[in-house]
Write a structure and sequence with these properties.
By secondary structure, the protein is α+β, with helices and mostly antiparallel strands. Helix content is 45%, strand content 23%. The chain is built from 22 helices and 30 strands. Strands 1, 2, 3, 4, 5 and 6 form a six-stranded antiparallel sheet that branches. It has a five-stranded antiparallel sheet with strand order 8-7-11-10-9. Helix 13 crosses helix 17 (656-666), helix 14 (534-545) crosses helix 15 and helix 20 packs parallel to helix 21.
């Protein structure tokens, strides 16, 4: 080593040591300051959370004292007093306990009997509330704190704190409850000064949020903090991300006594560390200035040395720039010298083509021997080189695949040009290669996604169109079936007219089934979803299918999903399995095997199927296969389209598989199909597993109708609202024949005006949803605002989740699916008016 090099190294080493010392000193000071600030914040948050938890516990103990006293007094004989005396006694126990909004006594059946004060609302049935069922089902529950809920007593958000009331023999006699409103809790905690960028949380043990002070900017995000219990178990101030506002916090979480409550104090970590940030900025500036001074000193010293080696340094820099350019381009370079028939390749070129560095590539023959081109690409690559060497092309531009040692094919994009002499003969060929496998894969994925997007859009458009047509057809079909049913009842049995009407009703029933299947495809229908055991359901389908098969067909089943259940409608799932099995049978003719495989599969990563994607999770996979001739490609692309069928005219509607697609997609599942000409077909349905045991083994069976006659009215006045005149007349005639007095209106406005003129005139309301101007659900809301106990039935041919929510919020008693039958309407009105009375 030269003396100049040794001197340069010493200067650089000394300078580096000085820089490291400066940075280390600044880093140590910053670390020590960070520890001090964090310890101060943790100590403050820990003390504050413990103090507030004690305060919350004392407040809760006061409520418990009131509940214990009220329960003991009621068990000892308070129940025998008159209601006013009981209410007064309850009111006296809430004096001095401002956190108790209302003290209530509930009997053993779940009905509120007494309140400490009149809230203006009727006594309610709370038998479905968790606090009631918990106290009723177990004697040793003690003090039970409910999740935040909207109380039926006053409609306020709050906590219901309850204790059990026992009879002298120890049996359940009822519950005494105290309502602690969230407004009171928020007011209590709002008076506490937590400091800037700090907040208080009061949650249940499962993370359900009770109070956040101050509240979140977006109330919809103020739901729960599921990880708070885990942070509490650490026993120290933790660092975590607040799921409500997404900011990193310092969190001190403690139990509120032995109650199922957690109180936490949070502070923004950025705010807590603000003094540290300020100090680190100042320290960083000082350190940078000192480092710059050291660097400038080193540069000054090295400049004197560089003057002596300027020529050598310039050459070295030129070589470094060339090497960096080669590396930055991420390309492999090669050269073919025609005069010597030699080849030079760079290390990058070797790596791109899967050739180890120890393998010699000195000649074109070596390259051809060790580089494995894809058989489909080798002729094109050879032709491109020959064309360029012959002068037919300006440059070489081609893409080809090469095989690496791991067996994978990689796509290479290559460019090259020749250097020629004055006569045009090639002297050298220079080339550059780049790996474009990622682009090729992205292009293939894009093409696949575009194909699936087009297919999905086509199915959605067809579903929307068919759903709209079916909805309009429902109104026409309702009048046909309704008047037909009335004519059928009046026609003499055995007469020609009765036979003709029977045929009309049979055709109408088929039309109604077709409309329902169209609505199922368009997913405009609604069904109650319950846990369904898929293995029990498939076994039921097999038991129904096997006796109907021809002698040459058999079923080969392997069901191994156990108790795995999916959340859905049993009838719809039964229809999915039966449709797939029926298609498999029809694909084979008179000979073959229908194979059913049912397994529970855990998917570790997202997977793309023919119709839909499935995310990571647990699924039930149903595979229905046949030994038929397979599905041609042109049929495979359209097999789930509505009204598409390969059967003869009159043998199918083409809705079976489209309904399967609509149901599976609505349940969050996906469908895959493996087939090919001459190969068996396997249709796989993937449905997400519901955690827990199935509650339903198959489709619900409609109960047998044992009613000989329809329930009849007794002259009650029924308001009927429908803008379809035939349906309005039909409803009036049916209701009149059942003993009611119908009053028909063609618009919501006329019906509302008649009701406002005499609200007590009508005993019930039957209204359509799709009305011009004001929809039926809005009409029901306005009628119930004037007369809350009025029975209202809403009907529609397009019953969906949105309509069900609107009807529930409006207070509608019953939601009916058009078209309506006489028996269905009679039972509905009897139930409505009976409940209303």
């Amino acid at each position: 080593m030269k003396a100049a090099d040794r001197l340069r190294h010493r200067i650089v080493a000394v300078g580096a040591l000085l820089i490291v010392a400066c940075i280390g000193s600044a880093g140590y000071d910053g670390w020590r300051l960070h520890q001090q600030i964090m310890m101060a914040n943790e100590r403050e948050l820990g003390n504050l959370s413990k103090a507030l938890a004690e305060q919350s516990l004392r407040s809760l103990q006061a409520v418990d004292v009131v509940l214990r006293d009220a329960a003991s007094w009621y068990e000892a004989g308070g129940a025998r007093l008159d209601p006013q005396a009981v209410s007064a006694a309850l009111a006296s126990r809430t004096v001095g306990v401002p956190q108790v909004n209302v003290l209530t006594v509930i009997d053993a059946q779940g009905m509120q009997q007494y309140r400490s004060r009149d809230t203006g609302t009727p006594l309610a049935d709370v038998s479905d509330r968790p606090y009631f069922t918990a106290q009723r089902d177990a004697r040793g529950v003690g003090l039970f704190i409910s999740k935040p809920m909207l109380t039926r007593t006053e409609g306020l958000a709050g906590l219901v704190v309850s204790r059990r009331i026992d009879r002298p023999d120890g049996s359940f006699a009822g519950v005494v409850t105290a309502i602690v409103t969230l407004q009171h809790l928020e007011g209590m905690y709002s008076a506490i000064r937590l400091g800037e960028r700090s907040s208080l949380l009061l949650t249940l043990n499962d993370g359900t949020l009770i109070v956040r002070q101050p509240g979140a900017d977006d109330p919809k995000r103020q739901q729960s903090f599921p990880g708070l219990a885990a942070l509490k178990e650490r026993g120290v101030v933790a660092h975590a991300v607040d799921p409500i506002d997404g900011r990193r916090k310092l969190i001190s979480a403690v139990d509120v006594g032995k109650r199922p409550l957690i109180l936490a104090i949070m502070r923004d970590e950025d705010y807590a560390l603000r003094p540290w940030y300020d100090e680190m900025l100042s320290s960083g500036i000082r350190t940078v200035l000192l480092i710059l001074l050291v660097v400038l000193t080193i540069v000054g010293l090295l400049r004197q040395l560089r003057r002596q080696e300027s020529g050598e340094q310039a050459l070295r820099q030129s070589e470094e720039r060339y090497a960096m350019a080669m590396e930055a381009a991420n390309e492999g370079h090669a050269e073919w010298n025609f005069a010597h028939n030699t080849v030079f390749v760079s290390d990058k070129w070797r790596a791109l083509h899967g050739v180890d560095a120890s393998v010699p590539l000195g000649t074109p023959a070596d390259v051809l021997r060790h580089v494995q081109l894809h058989p489909d690409d080798a002729p094109h690559a050879r032709q491109a080189i020959e064309d360029h060497l012959a002068g037919r092309t300006h440059a070489i531009e081609l893409e080809y695949r090469v095989r690496h040692a791991d067996g994978n094919w990689r796509w290479i994009h290559a460019r090259g040009r020749c250097v020629r002499d004055e006569a045009g003969a090639a002297l050298r060929l220079f080339g550059a290669a780049t790996d474009v496998s990622a682009r090729k894969l992205a292009e293939a994925d894009k093409a696949r996604l575009e194909t699936r997007l087009q297919q999905t859009q086509r199915l959605e458009a067809l579903g929307t169109l068919s759903g709209g047509i079916a909805h309009d057809f429902n109104n026409i079909l309702g009048a046909i079936l309704g008047f037909g049913e009335m004519a059928q009842q009046q026609a003499p049995a055995g007469s020609a007219m009765r036979r003709h009407i029977d045929r009309v009703m049979q055709a109408g029933a088929r039309a109604r089934l077709l409309v329902r299947r169209i609505l199922d495809f368009s997913r405009s229908g609604i069904a109650e979803r319950v846990p369904v055991n898929m293995q029990a359901l498939v076994e039921e389908v097999i038991s129904m299918l096997t006796p109907t098969l021809p002698p040459g067909l058999r079923v080969d089943a392997r069901l191994q999903s156990g108790s795995a259940a999916v959340m859905g409608d049993g009838t719809q799932l039964y229809q999915v399995v039966m449709n797939l099995c029926t298609n498999a049978v029809q694909a084979m003719g008179e000979q073959g095997v229908v194979s059913l495989r049912l397994d529970r599969v855990d998917v570790e990563q997202k997977r793309a199927l023919l119709h839909g994607d499935i995310a990571a999770g647990s699924y039930v996979c149903l595979e229905v296969g046949d030994t038929g001739p397979g599905i041609p490609p042109e049929v495979l692309q359209r097999m789930f389209d509505p009204f598409f069928t390969t059967k003869k005219v009159g043998e199918g509607t083409g809705l079976g598989l489209s309904v399967v697609h609509g149901i599976v997609a609505d349940l969050g599942g996906a469908i895959d199909v493996t087939t090919g000409s001459g190969r068996p077909t396997v249709v796989s349905v993937w449905l997400p597993v519901l955690q827990g045991q199935a509650m339903d083994g198959g489709p619900e069976q409609a109960p047998l109708d044992t009613v000989k006659g329809c329930p009849r009215g007794n002259g009650e006045v029924v308001m009927v609202v429908d803008d379809e005149q035939p349906l309005l007349e039909l409803a009036e005639e049916i209701l009149a024949s059942l003993g009611y007095e119908p009053v028909g209106f063609g618009t919501s406005e006329r019906a509302l005006a008649a009701f406002e003129a005499d609200p007590q005139r009508f005993d019930a309301v039957l209204t359509d949803e799709m009305l011009p101007g004001m929809p039926g659900s809005e009409l029901a809301r306005r009628l119930l605002a004037q007369r809350p106990a009025l029975p209202v039935a809403l009907m529609s041919g397009n019953v969906n989740v949105s309509l069900e929510q609107r009807a529930r919020s409006a207070g509608v008693s019953v939601l009916l699916h058009k078209p309506l039958g006489l028996q269905e309407l009679a039972e509905c009105m009897s139930r409505l008016i009976g409940d209303g009375s």
